[in-house]
């Protein structure tokens, strides 16, 4: 079958990196003898009219869309366009939003199917069912959301037990050399860059985090040999000089990270790398940090989220504020690894005093950069369910398209949305408008494209 995998047009300024989710899916479908193409509308800056023109030229049998919550309306328009051009085109969505809101997603009139969680095992079987309905029982397709007798059915989720069993992403379809020079977090050290994922799943229970909704709680790791082979492939085929580890829990298994660092050194793979998605502070120690640095790690992000111990406890992070501060100081005193701190503003139960503590802590810690994110009640998370139970939000009235960074769609009791927005601007200004931070950022800018990205992001924060 002819399959088009799509990241829909985005109404916000997205982080534009090679789409690993669609890349993995494309590779699996190719192994099942399907013809696959990937259309990243955000990367190509395509609107829905240009998307429609593309479909008219390609005429795929299947249109599969990756759906983030903020792209709900855009994805729905893509589905409607596909059906308007050809009623026989099968429409499928997957990704974070259908994983967290399967019933709401299937209310899209022209949507045929959706998937929760990881779709690499279920998607090929769905295509078999479409081609040979009598051979594949639809209820046996892992992770599938479908309709029967006007009711929505959600099958048991499927997981890739051994990530080594699936092929590398279809890198020729998501060529990393064709992506922006400021792909993730604005800055990088060497070009070109490629993202990689070395593990899946998260065993922790942070109330606000959607990772567990998407990839589950079971932590599954690729073998280090498998990861090294992908890095070698990327260097040989695309000349990659830096890679970004997008794992949610890269440092969870210390022995595995040490093995990774040792093999990079043993095989003389001299390459810069960063953990842009963050590492858990309670997993770090001096031996691990020094090995990471000696193997090429120059930067990582860490999640603090709040300067209030009370809020940290409510978030169920399973880390204390004192321990996190201690680990940050350890990184600073034993390595030259650059750190970005992740903070959240507007979490339920916060007071203005709690938010002020967060801002004060960000200024006190030895961070090179900081990201202050507005709280978003992501569907499927524990805090989302809690807010619904308490009547604080209405699931049928959520402004999905506004689920974006720097767009306040929720505010704690006794704090207005306007006040949350003011405090976010205050946090950014207080952190970045310090001479040593500002000068450090300017030194990291190596091109006009990076400079333009920095300027756009500052305008996005302060508008």
Description:
The chain is α/β, with parallel strands linked by helices. A 7-stranded mixed sheet has the order 2-1-3-4-5-6-7, with helices on both faces. The chain has a 6-stranded parallel sheet with strand order 8-11-12-13-14-15. Strands 9-10 form a two-stranded antiparallel ribbon. It has 18 helices and 15 strands. The mean pLDDT is 94. It folds into 2 domains: 153 residues, Rossmann fold; 288 residues, Alpha-Beta Horseshoe (pyruvate-formate lyase- activating enzyme), CATH 3.80.30. Strand 1, helix 1 and strand 2 form a beta-alpha-beta unit.
Count of separate DSSP helical elements: 18
CATH topology of the largest domain: pyruvate-formate lyase- activating enzyme
- Architecture (CATH level 2) name of the largest domain: Alpha-Beta Horseshoe
**DSSP strand tally:** 15
Q: What is the assigned CATH homologous superfamily of the largest domain? A: tm_1862 like domain
Cα-based radius of gyration, to the nearest Å: 22 Å
Number of domains: 2
Q: Supply the helix-strand structural class.
A: alpha/beta
- What's the story with the biggest beta sheet? 7 strands, mixed
**Termini distance?**
46 Å
* Global morphology: globular
The strand order across the widest sheet is 2-1-3-4-5-6-7
Task: Note the quaternary state here.
Answer: single chain
Low-confidence regions: none
Mean pLDDT reading: 94
Task: Please give the CATH class of the largest domain.
Answer: Alpha Beta
């Amino acid at each position: 079958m002819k399959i088009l995998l799509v990241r829909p047009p985005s109404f916000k300024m997205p982080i534009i990196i090679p789409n690993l989710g669609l890349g993995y899916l494309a590779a699996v479908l190719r192994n099942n003898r399907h013809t696959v193409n990937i259309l990243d509308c955000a990367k190509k800056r395509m609107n829905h009219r240009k998307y429609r023109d593309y479909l008219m030229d390609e005429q795929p049998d299947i249109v599969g869309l990756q759906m983030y919550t903020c792209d709900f309306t855009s994805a729905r328009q893509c589905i409607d366009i596909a059906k308007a051009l050809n009623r026989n085109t099968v429409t499928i969505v997957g990704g974070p939003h259908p994983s967290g809101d399967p019933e709401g997603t299937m209310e899209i009139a022209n949507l045929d199917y959706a998937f929760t969680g990881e779709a690499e095992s279920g998607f090929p079987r769905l295509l078999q069912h479409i081609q040979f309905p009598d051979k594949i029982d639809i209820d046996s397709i892992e992770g599938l959301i479908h309709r029967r007798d006007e009711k929505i059915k959600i099958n048991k989720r499927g997981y890739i037990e051994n990530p080594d069993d699936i092929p590398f992403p279809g890198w020729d379809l998501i060529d990393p050399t064709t992506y922006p020079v400021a792909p993730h977090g604005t800055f990088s050290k060497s070009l070109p860059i490629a993202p990689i994922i070395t593990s899946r799943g998260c065993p922790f229970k942070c109330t606000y985090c959607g990772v567990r909704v998407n990839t589950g709680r079971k932590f599954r790791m690729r073998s280090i040999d498998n990861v090294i082979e992908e890095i070698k492939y990327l260097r040989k085929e695309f000349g990659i000089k830096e890679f970004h580890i997008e794992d949610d829990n890269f440092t969870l298994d210390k022995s595995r990270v040490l093995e990774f660092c040792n093999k990079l050194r043993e095989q003389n793979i001299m390459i810069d790398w960063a953990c842009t998605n963050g590492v858990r502070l309670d997993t770090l120690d001096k031996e691990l940090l020094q090995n990471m640095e000696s193997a090429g790690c120059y930067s990582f992000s860490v999640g603090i989220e709040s300067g209030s111990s009370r809020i940290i406890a409510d978030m169920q992070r399973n880390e204390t504020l004192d321990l996190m501060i201690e680990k940050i100081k350890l990184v600073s005193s034993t390595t030259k690894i650059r750190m970005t701190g992740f903070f959240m503003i507007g979490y339920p139960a916060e007071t203005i005093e709690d938010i002020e503590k967060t801002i004060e802590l960000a200024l006190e810690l030895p961070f090179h950069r900081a990201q202050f994110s507005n709280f978003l009640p992501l569907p499927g998370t524990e805090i989302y369910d809690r807010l619904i139970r308490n009547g604080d939000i209405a699931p049928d009235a959520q402004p999905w398209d506004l689920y974006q960074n720097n767009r306040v769609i929720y505010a704690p009791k006794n704090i207005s949305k306007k006040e949350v927005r003011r405090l976010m601007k205050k946090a950014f200004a207080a952190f970045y408008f310090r001479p040593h931070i500002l000068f450090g950022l300017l030194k990291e800018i190596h091109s006009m494209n990076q400079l333009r990205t920095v300027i756009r992001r500052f305008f996005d924060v302060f508008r």
